[in-house]
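Q: Start with the shorter request: fold the first protein.
A: Done. Sequence, then structure:
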Amino acid sequence: MSIFKKLFKQTFIYGLATVLPRALAIFLVPLYVLVLGKEQFGIYASLMAFLILGNVMLSYGMETAFFRFINREEFQKEKVQSTALTSLLISTLLFLSIALFAREKLASFLEFKTEYVSYGILILALDALAVIPFVWYRAHEKPMRYAFIKIFNVCINLGFNLFFFLVLPIWAEKETNSIWNSIYLEEGKVAYVFIANLIASGITFLILLPIYFKVRISFDKIIWKKMIRYAFPVLIAGIAFSINEAFDKILLKYLLPSDIADAEVGVYAACYKLGVFMTLFATAFRLGIEPFFFNHSKHENAKQTYATITKYFTVIGSLILLFVVVYLDIFKRILIPDPSFWDAIVIVPIILLANLCLGIYHNLSVWYKVTDRTKYGAYISVIGALITLILNFALIPIISYKGSAIATLAAYGSMMVISYFIGKKYYAVPYDLKKIGFYLLLSVVFSVFSFYIFEGNLWLGTALLLVFIAMIYFSEKKEIKQILKR
C-alpha cells in the first residue's frame, strides 16, 4: 500500500470515527426536546458545557505531547507511553477523590443537583482514563479498532437513551411492581441522559483496560517534565477553544435571572444544534485535509494549492449556509419538534456563519502549522476566548441568547481575520480574496433576505439558492471541469 493510499485510508477512518458520533447524536435532539422540555434541556446543555471544559483540563495536553515524544529518538517509546499513562491515571484519581468528596459543595456552588454533579464527575474521570489508550491505538496505527470503539461508545449511549425514554416508560406502566417501575423517573428525566453517558463511558473504559496492562504503570520524571512543558501551551489553547465552543451556555445560566435561566439555555442550545450541518462539514473537511497540508508543504505549488482549497471550502460552506437557512423551517420541525423552542431560531443563521468562519480559520491556519509557529494558534484562540467572554458578559443581560450568538460570530470571525493578516507575514498564500469575499458576502445577503426580511418564504429562498448555485457554476465552470477530469 502506498504511503498516500495508507494516509487516505487512515484519515477517512479517523474522520468517520469523529464525524459519525456527532451525526448520530443529532438523532437524540428531537427526543430530548419532546421529553425533557426547555428547563431540563437547559440543565443538560449547561452541564455538558462544563464537561467539555473539564475534558480539556483533565487531559491537559498530554494527548498531543504523547504524539510528539513517542517519535523522538532520544526517548524510549515504552517510557513515553507508560509515563503519559501513569500521569493521567494519578491526576484523574486525585480529581475523582477530591471532586466526589466535595460534590455537595460543588453542586451548591454550580446550582445543580448533587446527583447530576456526581454523574458529571464520574463521566469526566472515565473519559480522562480513556485518553491515552485511544492515543495508543492511533500511535500504533490501529484505526479500525479506534473507530470501532468510538462508534460503539455512541451506539451504547444512543441505545440507553432510547431505552430510558421510549421503552422504560412502557414497561414501568405495564408492570407496576417490577424493577422497571422502581428505576422509572416521573420527574427529573434529564438524569437519564447522564446515566446513559456514564454507562457508555464505563463500558468503553472496560474495553480499553487491556491497554493499561500492555503499557504498564511506570513513571520517568525527566520525560514527564518535558512532556508537561510541551503540553502546557496545548492546554491553554484547549481551554480557550472550549470557552469559545461552550462557555456561552454556562454564562447564560448565571447571568440571567434564575427563574428563566434554564429555559433560555434550553431553547438556545436546542437551536444551536441546527448549526451542526456546518460543523460536520468543517470537521470532516479539516480531518481530511490537514494531513495533506503537511505532506504537500514542500511542493513547489503548495501555496497556490492551499489557496484553491480554501476558496472551494468557502464556496461549499457558503452554499451549505444558504441551503440550511432557506430550508430552516423544515429542519426545525424535524430536529426541534416542540414549537416552544422556536423562539431562539433567530440565532441559527448567525451560528451557521460563525461555524463557517471557524472552518475558514482552520484552513487559514496552515501557515503556523507548516512553519512550526503553533504558539500563534494558542494566541489567536485566547484572543477569541476573550472576545467571547467580554461580549457575553456585556450582551447577555441585555439581549439574552442573541448576545451569545453575536459573541460566537465575533470571536470566530476575529480569529479568521487575525490568522489571515499574521499569516501574510510568515507564509503568504495567494488567496483569491475577491472570490472568497464575493461568495461569502452573497451567501450572507441572500440568507438575510430569505430568513429575516421575507421570513423564511420557501419559494423566494429556493429561487435565491438556485441563483447562487448558477453563479458558482458559471464562475467556476472551467476549474470544476478540470477537477472532475483529474
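Q: Next, the second protein, separately.
A: Sequence, then structure:
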Amino acid sequence: MKGGEFLDTNIHIYSIDTASLPKKKVAIQLVDRIFCEQTGTISIQVFCEFFWVTTRKIKNPLSSDKANSIIKNLSTWNVHLPNYENIENAIKLVSKYKLSFWDAMILESAIAMNCHTLWSEDLHNGAVYDGVHIRNPFNPIH
C-alpha cells in the first residue's frame, strides 16, 4: 500500500496567508493533521516556491527568517530531492497528462516518494495520475 501525502505549494502558502481566511483555516487543519500523523511529503521545489511566494508575492509577506523557520519545520517531513531521472519522468508526465512542467514535477515527486495522495488546487480534483489521487481540500469530492 502506498504511504504518504504530498501537499502542493499552494496549500502551504494558504496556511500562512491572511488574504483568504476560509482557505487558511482548511489549509492549517490539513497541515496540522499531516504533522500529527507524520504522513507528510514535500520536495525541494515546494520549499523554493514557498519561500519565493511568501516573502514577495502575498499581501503580508513574511520575513526571510520567518519563511526559513517554517521551511525548517517542514523539513522534518519526507523530502524528495529530484534528480535528472525525475526531470525526465516529469517531462513524460507533461505529455501524458497535458500538465505544466512545474505541476508535473510536483506529481513526479509524489510518485517517486510513493504517495497515495497529492493535495492541490492546481490539478483535477478526483483524478488519479499514475496511482496518485489528486484531492483539493477547498473543493472536497462528495
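Q: Describe the second briefly.
A: The domain at 5-135 is CATH 3.40.50.1010 (Rossmann fold). Residues 10 and 120 are 7 Å apart (CA to CA).
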